[in-house]
Amino acid sequence: xxxxxxxxxxxxxxxxxxxxxxxxxxxxxxxxxxxxxxxxxxxxxxxxxxxxxxxxxxxxxxxxxxxxxxxxxxxxxxxxxxxxxxxxxxxxxxxxxxxxxxxxxxxxxxxx
Amino acid sequence: xxxxxxxxxxxxxxxxxxxxxxxxxxxxxxxxxxxxxxxxxxxxxxxxxxxxxxxxxxxxxxxxxxxxxxxxxxxxxxxxxxxxxxxxxxxxxxxxxxxxxxxxxxxxxxxxxxx
Lengths: 112, 115
Prior knowledge:
The complex is a heterodimer. Chain A is mainly β. Chain A is built from no helices and ten strands. Chain A has strands at residues 10-14, 19-24, 30-38, 45-51, 56-58, 62-67, 72-77, 86-94, 100-102, 106-111. The radius of gyration of chain A is 14 Å and the shape is globular. Mean pLDDT of chain A is 91; it is low at 1-6. Chain B is an all-beta fold. Helices cover 0% and strands 54% of the residues of chain B. Chain B has strands spanning 5-7, 10-13, 19-24, 31-38, 42-50, 53-56, 65-71, 74-79, 88-95, 105-106, 110-114. In chain B, strands 2, 4, 5, 6, 9, 10 and 11 form a seven-stranded mixed sheet that branches. A four-stranded antiparallel sheet of chain B has the order 1-3-8-7, with no helix packed on it. Chain B starts with a strand and ends with a strand. Classes of the chains: A mainly beta, B mainly beta. The A-B interface holds A 1-2, 4-7, 32, 34, 41-46, 49, 51, 89, 93, 98-105 and B 4, 31, 33, 37-40, 42-45, 48, 50, 55-56, 89, 91, 93, 97, 100-109, 111.
């Protein structure tokens, strides 16, 4: 895998602070969403998912919020650690579809 | 489980040559996806299979690209002839659609450079 590129939105946070990564999705008919993390040299890795009938879901140190009214998804990472540095993608799946459309990604940089 | 396996990890070839990328999905998974990742276009779905049958190949750029899945444990993505604009990282992913879960497991990717 590769880091995606030079023109990604970048979020820089201090170690220990909370991070919020945002994603605007395009299809109002999307019924399922996933956040992926991609570290340099690796493929995307699943973090957390959420269905469209939910507005919040929590995992270990991560929370995903879904606002269908404005077609917005966010990923919150609590107590950000150096190992959280990566590119984060949201992906949406259309109702009755099987494939996902990925967003452009956001690079998270954790400062010591 | 070893996860999704892709080979080669890196491929450098000259324009006009045939390139074959290989993927072994996670055993028991019933869906297999091929993606391409570039700086300009991000992560794009090329084609996906369900139970070895191609379902949607609308993302395949052109006739130079072809993909096969002869059995549940192997898939190939072929580019013939290759062009410099095909340079990208190609990912294979697999998933098991059960219980309403759609998580895809990605391989490490193949970095293709066409000169």
